[in-house]
Design a protein that fits this description.
It comes from Psychrobacillus vulpis. By secondary structure, the protein is of the alpha+beta class. The protein has 3 helices and 3 strands.
């Protein structure tokens, strides 16, 4: 039986996905700024708002993870998957995420934050 609760998995996954999402949206923002759009301000405002919300959520996640002695460690990476170790109070759990899983969940989160 795992010593990591379902609620704690949410924080581990936030710690995993939110930095990825920030990188993607920052690159998208650069692209929007560099390329000519007829109306760039609405796109820029939407992406900046999403980034602000994501950073706020990541900060809350970092506080929780620190407070409850949790750590996320990126392990082996190959063409098919990336391995992560979830550590909580000395207990370790290993999980593998395929590229497709990472992409799909990141895309799902992006839709959530963009529509906020």
């Amino acid at each position: 039986m795992s010593s990591i609760s379902t609620d704690e998995y949410i924080y581990f996954e936030n710690k995993l996905y939110l930095p990825i999402l920030i990188k993607i949206l920052e690159k998208d923002l650069e692209t929007i700024i560099k390329h000519p759009f007829k109306l760039t301000r609405p796109y820029i405002a939407k992406v900046e708002s999403a980034l602000s919300n994501i950073r706020t959520e990541l900060k809350k996640t970092d506080v929780y993870i620190t407070r409850y002695n949790m750590r996320l460690v990126k392990g082996k990476t190959n063409e098919d998957y990336t391995e992560y170790t979830f550590i909580k109070s000395g207990h370790e759990e290993y999980r593998k995420y395929t590229r497709n899983q990472l992409r799909e969940k990141t895309e799902e989160l992006m839709c959530t934050y963009i529509t906020m």
